[in-house]
């Protein structure tokens, strides 16, 4: 169990460091919407996400950040539980990846508005004398990984969209997002039975606690 705990901590530290190192490099070397072509289908394209996935803004920024912190807290608690119960290490790795992805984006939301000035028309400065571009909990998440695997113009004969540009894959994301996606995909492909049993045990344990409380009352 101790080895699995150390492995989970190592994964979290290493992957969080990679996520933040790339974000800080992009933030301090590129202006907003700058692009670096790595290959014709892979670009480092600097953008900032003010809201949830794909830039959707449903909640106010502080509320969204607090929601993310609470969600990460539940993931951390679950990770501690499965390590304590000596689950398969592969399953622990998946939950660790999801957790590190969550806290990677939380770090941006909490600190980046204070640590950096804005990137519009300039390269941001770390710890600027005049202060950051926002206050605590109002930072924007840095995204940069862009994979336009297909970039073409649709044929004119296609109704409604004929002649328009078609790009696949259009979303721009970061390493933290990819950690979450990889963790979730591996979880459902290789550990779906373990996940189902784990959630069933959690639900059963909650019901037993409720029954014990009612009996005590």
Structural class: alpha+beta
Q: Report mean pLDDT, rounded to a whole number.
A: 89
- Strand order within the widest beta sheet: 1-2-3-6
Main beta sheet: 4 strands, antiparallel
Identify the quaternary structure here: single chain
Low-pLDDT ranges: 208-217
Helix-strand sequence: HEEHHEEEEHH
What separation lies between the terminal Cα atoms?
37 Å
The percentage of residues in β strands lies in 5-15%
When the domains are counted, the total is 1
Give the CA-based shape: globular
What proportion of the residues is helical, as a percent range? Answer: 55-70%
- The count of helical stretches stands at 5
Total strands? 6
List the helices and strands and how they pair.
Elements: H1 2-29, E1 35-39, E2 42-49, H2 61-84, H3 89-115, E3 141-146, E4 150-153, E5 165-168, E6 172-173, H4 175-190, H5 192-216
Antiparallel strand pairs: 1-2, 2-3, 3-6, 4-5
Helix pairs in contact: 1-3, 2-3, 3-4
Name the descriptors.
217 residues; alpha+beta; four-stranded antiparallel beta sheet; 6 strands; globular; disordered C terminus
Describe this structure in words.
55% of the residues lie in helices and 13% in strands. The longest helix is centred in the first third of the chain and has 28 residues, at 2-29. Strands 1-2-3-6 form a four-stranded antiparallel beta sheet. A two-stranded antiparallel sheet has the order 4-5. A hairpin with a 2-residue loop joins strand 1 (35-39) and strand 2 (42-49). By secondary structure, it is an alpha+beta fold. The chain has one domain (2-36, 47-145, 171-211). It has five helices and six strands.
